[in-house]
Automatic annotation (TrEMBL), chain A:
Entry GO CC: proton-transporting V-type ATPase, V1 domain
Pfam families per the UniProt record, alphabetical: ATP-synt_F (PF01990)
Annotated signal sequence range: none
Ranges annotated as spanning the membrane: 12-34
Domain of life (superkingdom): Eukaryota
Name by which UniProt lists this protein: V-type proton ATPase subunit F
InterPro entries: ATPase_V1-cplx_f_g_su, ATPase_V1-cplx_fsu_euk, ATPase_V1_fsu_sf
Similarity comment: Belongs to the V-ATPase F subunit family.
UniProt-recorded Gene Ontology molecular function terms: proton-transporting ATPase activity, rotational mechanism
Keyword terms: Hydrogen ion transport, Ion transport, Membrane, Transmembrane, Transmembrane helix, Transport
SUPFAM superfamilies: AtpF-like
TrEMBL record, chain B:
Signal peptide: none
Superkingdom of origin: Eukaryota
Annotated region (Disordered), positions in chain: 216-255
Keyword hit for Ion transport: yes
Name of this protein: Vacuolar ATP synthase subunit D
Annotated source species: Strombidinopsis acuminata
Length: 147, 255
C-alpha cells in the first residue's frame, strides 16, 4: 500500500502483521520457502514468484505489480539479476512500505554498484563520483569481483 | 535578488506591532526547523553508513545458505517441487511494524515473528533421506532471512528520512528566503510611512501656526490704519479664518 507523500514521517499504525515476498531464481526461492515464509492464500495469490531463464520480463513486472497492489506485504525480495531486468519499475517505486530489497542471485554475486538504494546512499554520503569509487572498493574488499 | 512585495498593508502603529511579533515568531520557527533538519541529517548519515555495510555483508550469508541448499539437494534429490507444492494457506512467518521516533519523525522498523505453527508440512521433506541436510539448509536460510529483515528496516528508515529531510529543507529555505525578508520589508515600509506621516503632521502644524501669525500681524497693521469699525470686521475675519484653519486640520489631526 502506498504511503502518500504527506504521510511520510508522521505517526502510523499498521494493524496486524505483514508478509515477506520473494521474486528470484528457482534455487533461491526454494531455499526461502524452506523457512516456511511461503503462502498461497484462499484467493490463490502467492507471495513468491520463480523466475527462470525464459520467463518474459513482462511476466516479472506483472508479478511485482500484483505484489505491490496487495496491502499485506511488507518486504519484497528481488534477486539482483532480475532486478536489473525490471530496473525502471523498481526505481519508480517510491512508497516506504512495501520496501523492495535486492538480494544476490544464484548466477550473480551481489554487486553493490547496481543496487538502487545503495548507490543513492553512497552518492549522498560521499558525493556522486567518489561514491561509486567507494562502492567499487567495498565490492573488491568482499572478494565479490568476478575474474 | 528582488522579491515583488505588495504594500497593500495599512501603515498603522497597530500593524507595526503585529508585524514585529510575526518577525519574532518566524525567526523562532526558523531556528527550531533548522535544529530539526540538523538532527535528521545526523541520523540519516548513520543509517546510510549502516546500509552500505550491511548490504555488502548479505552476500556472505547468502552464499552460505545456497551452499547448504546444494548439499541438501545432493543428499535428498531435487525437492524444489515438493517445497512449492507444500506451501501453506497461511504462513507463520510474518512481520510486525513498529515506529521509531527521531526528532519527531516516525520511522518504520520491521520485526520477524514466527507465530504458532499447528501443522508442520515440512516434516514430510527428506523422509527418504537427507533430512538433516535439509534442516541445516533451513536453518541457514532462516538466518539469512533475519539479516534481510534488518536490512529492509534500514531501507525503510532511509527512504522515510530522505523524504522528510527534503520537505524540512524546503520549509527552512522558504522561511529564510521568502517569509522573513517579506516581513522585514513590511516592517520597514510601515516605519517609513509612519515617519513620513509624523513629518507631514509637524510640517502642516508649522504652516498653520505661521499662517495664523501672519494674519494676526496683518490685522494689527490694518487696525492702526483704519480704526474701530475695521477692528470688528477684522475680529470676525480672524474668527472665521481660525475656524477655516481648524476645518482644514480636522482630517489630518485625528488619524
Amino acid at each position: 500500500f502506498v504511503k502518500m507523500a504527506s504521510q511520510v514521517g508522521k505517526a502510523f499504525r499498521i494493524k496486524g502483521t505483514l508478509l515477506m515476498a520473494v521474486i528470484a531464481d528457482a534455487a533461491t526461492v526454494t531455499g526461502m520457502l524452506l523457512t516456511g515464509m511461503g503462502e498461497r492464500n484462499h484467493k490463490g495469490q502467492t507471495n513468491f514468484f520463480i523466475v527462470e531463464k525464459d520467463t518474459p520480463t513482462a511476466d516479472i513486472e506483472a508479478a511485482l505489480e500484483k505484489m505491490l497492489d496487495r496491502e499485506d506485504i511488507g518486504i519484497i525480495l528481488v534477486g539482483q539479476s532480475i532486478a536489473e531486468r525490471i530496473r525502471p519499475k523498481i526505481v519508480e517505486h517510491e512508497a516506504v512500505i512495501p520496501t523492495i530489497l535486492e538480494i544476490p542471485s544464484k548466477d550473480q554475486p551481489y554487486d553493490p554498484e547496481k543496487d538502487t538504494v545503495v548507490t543513492r546512499a553512497a552518492s549522498i554520503l560521499w558525493g556522486a563520483d567518489t561514491g561509486m569509487q567507494k562502492l567499487k572498493e567495498i565490492k573488491e574488499a568482499k572478494g565479490v569481483v568476478k575474474k | 535578488f528582488r522579491i515583488k512585495m505588495s504594500t497593500g498593508i495599512l501603515p498603522s502603529r497597530m500593524n507595526l506591532q503585529l508585524f514585529k511579533i510575526k518577525a519574532v515568531s518566524a525567526k523562532k520557527g526558523f531556528d527550531l526547523l533548522k535544529k530539526k533538519a540538523d538532527a535528521l541529517k545526523k541520523a540519516f548519515r548513520g543509517i546510510l553508513q549502516k546500509i552500505v555495510e550491511s548490504k555488502a555483508c548479505i552476500g556472505e550469508d547468502y552464499n552460505e545458505a545456497m551452499l547448504g541448499l546444494a548439499e541438501a539437494t545432493f543428499a535428498a534429490g531435487d525437492f524444489s517441487r515438493a517445497v512449492v507444492d507444500h506451501v501453506k494457506k497461511k504462513t507463520p512467518v510474518r512481520l510486525t511494524v513498529h515506529s521509531d521516533n527521531i526528532a519527531g519523525v516516525h520511522l518504520p522498523i520491521f520485526t520477524l515473528r514466527h507465530e504458532e505453527d499447528n501443522s508442520d508440512d515440512n516434516s514430510l521433506l527428506g523422509l527418504t533421506g537427507g533430512g538433516t541436510a535439509i534442516n541445516k539448509a533451513r536453518e541457514k536460510f532462516t538466518k539469512f532471512l533475519k539479516v534481510l529483515v534488518t536490512v529492509a528496516s534500514l531501507q525503510t528508515q532511509f527512504v522515510t528520512l530522505d523524504q522528510v529531510i527534503k520537505v524540512t529543507n524546503r520549509r527552512v529555505n522558504a522561511l529564510e528566503f521568502v517569509l522573513i525578508p517579506k516581513i522585514k520589508f513590511t516592517i520597514d515600509y510601515i516605519d517609513k510611512e509612519l515617519d513620513e506621516e509624523s513629518r507631514e503632521d509637524f510640517f502642516r502644524l508649522k504652516k498653520v501656526v505661521e499662517a495664523k501669525k501672519q494674519r494676526q500681524a496683518e490685522k494689527y497693521a490694518n487696525n492702526d490704519n483704519k480704526g474701530k469699525q475695521d477692528n470688528e470686521n477684522a475680529e470676525e475675519e480672524v474668527m472665521v479664518e481660525e475656524q477655516d484653519a481648524f476645518d482644514d486640520d480636522d482630517e489630518d489631526v485625528f488619524i
